[in-house]
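Re-running Aspartate carbamoyltransferase to confirm reproducibility after the cluster update. Everything else is unchanged from the original entry.
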Amino acid sequence: MRHLLDTRTLTRDEAILILDIAEDMSATQQREVKKLPTLRGKTIVNLFYEDSTRTRISFEAASKRLSADVINFSAKGSSVSKGESLKDTAQTLQAIGADGVVIRHPASGAPAMLASSGWIDAGVLNAGDGTHEHPTQALLDAFTMRRRLFGENSRGRDLDGISVVIVGDIMHSRVARSNLWLLKVLGAHVSFVAPETLLPYGTREWPVTIYHSLDAAIREANPDVIMLLRIQTERMHAAFFPNEREYARNWGLNDVRVAGLQDRTIIMHPGPMNRGLEISAGAADSARSTVLEQVANGVSVRMAALYLLLSGERGESA
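Result of re-run:
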């Protein structure tokens, strides 16, 4: 695998390979010594143009547990704040010998540009670009679903027949997009729940069922998984719903709705959570919740992705 830029172009076999390798990585994390020598001598740069806690720390932990040297780059306090272009930054990383670049960028398509530009020879891994995609988040979500629904001995399994309901700010969510494409290739049925104003143009042409009522989605889609999305106010430049109270009443997963779920239904959230808005404290902290598992599983999944990008022969882009 040369790069990991999206989930839309991943095949079923490629996705399951990543998930199965993540199982192996997860097993090593139960040992007293968690480090593997796999990427010793490799240099990985975390190139973050947007704020991040979970994703950046997760990639740093994954890189170090594979024994790579890690350079953390933040746009704030760097030459980017002086007007340096992505090209010049990339050429600087090429000059210092970066083998892999994990990039988060506010512009959709920036990782693909970096990967195809010829500015740098490193493998590129998309850690979130604009409202486009966030492939490793979708992979760790699928990994978490597979483990919760089928147990830890789920190697080789896809998610055929699983019903996943994704609720909230679909318009601005790269997580929703990456999950949709990955879950469909793994055989799951995906439903989106949102007010009309928070659905991107063209959504009805995607392979997804649309609901405007969370109660209707729970009743009709019979979900195995409910995934809540954060309202991304930093990307909003208009009023997309009347107020927070109205949003929570119509689209928030509150304690009453949780009580009406089937016993098997799990609750997911990519974080950070707005408690009391898209999810109640009771739902977030319940035994159904996988929020902290998602964070822990993210390290194993990102170890798997970095291993495939950097440990062997370079293949074609994924």
